[in-house]
Each structure stands twice: as C-alpha cells, then as structure tokens.
C-alpha cells in the first residue's frame, strides 16, 4: 500500500523501472509489518526512476526522482529533485549526483533554494552547494585521492555569503578518518572580507 513499482522494458537496459510513492508513511508501515522492525518516521509523495544499463563490460546505473514532499523524522523537504549516475558500477568512485529542494525544514529552521552537485572520478571529487534563504551562501570543495596516508587532500575550499568569502590558503590540507570522526590537518582559511 502507498507504493507502486513498475518494470519498463527498454532496449540496451538490463532494468528500467519506476517506484511511485503516493503515501510513504503507509508504505513504511507495511514494510515495518513485513520486516518486523521499526523504521524512522517517514512520509511524502513522489517517484524514483531507475535504469540499469547492461553493456558488455560493465553495467551503469542512472536514477532520476522527484518528490512534492519527503519527511524523515523531523526533517522535511519540499519540491525535491534528484539525479544521479554511475557510468560503471565496477568503478563506484566515478559518478555524479545533483539534488535540489525548494525548501528543507527542521523545527523552526528553514532553508530555501537548496542545490547540491557532486562529481568524482578516479582521482578528484568536487562538491558545490548553495542555498538562497534565509541568506545566500555558496560552498565549493575539491578533494584529491592521494593514495597515501592520509588518503585525501583538500585542493579547494571556498565558502561565500553576502559581504564575505572564505578560502583555503597554503598547501593542501590533509583529511583523515579518526576515532572521533574526520580530522583535518594544515587547514588555513582566509577571508576576502
């Protein structure tokens, strides 16, 4: 209940289908009953289209979704759009993801005009994020897989909002996972004012 999945035959695709969700809360309750375990509080309406390519050497995955609303616990998103692609599942470090939301709310906090774009290849990963409300802010981030310890280096970091821009300066900062989470070494931020 609340969920409809369809398979759409397509030339050159191992699988192409759509999951349409009219009531995610009802679908989640049915999944909880079948699985015998609790899920986070979920709600919303939307659909997700999935395509799994079937080329000779390596399959690729494409997802495209849109939701009028989506709720996970106290977090709610409206006018949500998602697009993602992994050209080759055998190389999961290569891909791209784009996410947009008209608004994201949690309690009294509300962000509007949220946009997120991420891309990666074998060596580099890029992230660009922006919001329009309550104030305009932009983030540009580039990471390099260093193949050493620590495994990541920060190549670019820019955080811009009205009347101020912060940039990473100096040699590339090193990022490593620690027991308490991520640790960043040798990061110097400078304001353009």
Describe the structure.
The protein is mostly beta strands and about 190 residues long. The chain has one helix and 14 strands, in the order ββαββββββββββββ. Strands 1, 2, 3, 4, 5, 6, 7, 8, 9, 10, 11, 12, 13 and 14 form a 14-stranded antiparallel β-sheet that branches. The longest helix has 12 residues.
The count of DSSP E runs of length 2 or more, i.e. the number of strands, is 14
Biggest beta-sheet profile: 14 strands, antiparallel
The SS-based structural class is mainly beta
* Structure annotation, total helices: 1
Oligomer: single chain
Low-confidence stretches: none
Relative helix content: under 10%
Mean pLDDT: 87
**Pattern of helices and strands:** EEHEEEEEEEEEEEE
Categorize the overall geometry.
globular
Radius of gyration: 20 Å
What separation lies between the terminal Cα atoms?
Answer: 54 Å
Strand content: over 45%
């Amino acid at each position: 209940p609340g969920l409809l999945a369809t398979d759409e035959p397509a030339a050159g695709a191992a699988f192409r289908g759509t999951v349409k969700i009219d009531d995610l809360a009802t679908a989640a309750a049915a999944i909880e009953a079948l699985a015998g375990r609790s899920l986070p509080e979920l709600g919303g309406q939307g659909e997700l289209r999935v395509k799994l390519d079937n080329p000779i050497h390596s399959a690729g995955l494409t997802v495209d979704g849109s939701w009028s609303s989506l709720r996970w616990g106290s977090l709610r998103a409206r006018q949500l759009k998602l697009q993602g692609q992994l050209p080759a599942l055998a190389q999961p470090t290569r891909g791209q993801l784009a996410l947009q939301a008209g608004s994201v709310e949690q309690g009294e906090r509300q962000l509007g005009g949220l946009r997120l774009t991420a891309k990666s290849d074998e060596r580099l990963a890029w992230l660009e994020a922006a919001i329009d409300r309550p104030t305009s802010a932009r983030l540009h981030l580039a990471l390099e897989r260093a193949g050493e310890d620590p495994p990541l280096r920060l190549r670019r970091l820019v955080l811009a909002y009205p009347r101020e821009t912060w940039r990473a300066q100096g040699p590339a900062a090193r990022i490593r996972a620690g027991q308490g989470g991520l640790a960043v070494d040798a990061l110097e931020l400078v304001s353009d004012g």
